[in-house]
């Protein structure tokens, strides 16, 4: 079985990370890796960006926000971005990335992790529901459905 692991961004992998693409119809549902990294750059104390490798292959990007003092409860321990490359989807890599974020949140003594998603035809909603996130009934500032998983 291929070993899955998270890797930090470095000068050696950042170009490949920025080339990572989800399928075209999915691009309305998630920001590019480059945009996410720019957001991480201006919030280094909060952003937790990682690459997902299957063996030697780069297959995805995940970024969490850990911001325990955020006035908005659902941004305190938040699965911010998740991009699995189009050709590597449906192989369990998305689940691995989410579970890695949950593990990091546990390490930081968080009680739950939230995520938000846009509903629609190519939405990640079924994926998050399958993994156990439950809609909280809230809609965030971008009009996205907020989901939470207890740890
Ligand atoms: C959503 C996404 C991250 C899922 O990643 P993935 O690697 O394909 O998902 P996995 O293979 O780990 O799937 C885990 C489970 O969810 C299910 N699942 C994944 N995508 C699904 C979908 N679109 N519809 C229904 N079930 C889905 C899988 O069948 C699997 O179920 P199982 O436990 O019964 O085997 C990926 O499709 C993606 O990057 N999408 C575009 C970007 C995006 O929307 N990101 C989220 C922004 S909030």
Automatic annotation (TrEMBL):
This is GNAT family N-acetyltransferase. Keywords: Acyltransferase, Transferase. Residues 4-151 form the N-acetyltransferase domain. InterPro entries: Acyl_CoA_acyltransferase (IPR016181), GNAT_dom (IPR000182). Its EC number is 2.3.1.-. It comes from Amycolatopsis halotolerans. Pfam families: Acetyltransf_1. GO terms for molecular function: acyltransferase activity. The lineage of its organism: Bacteria, Bacillati, Actinomycetota, Actinomycetes, Pseudonocardiales.
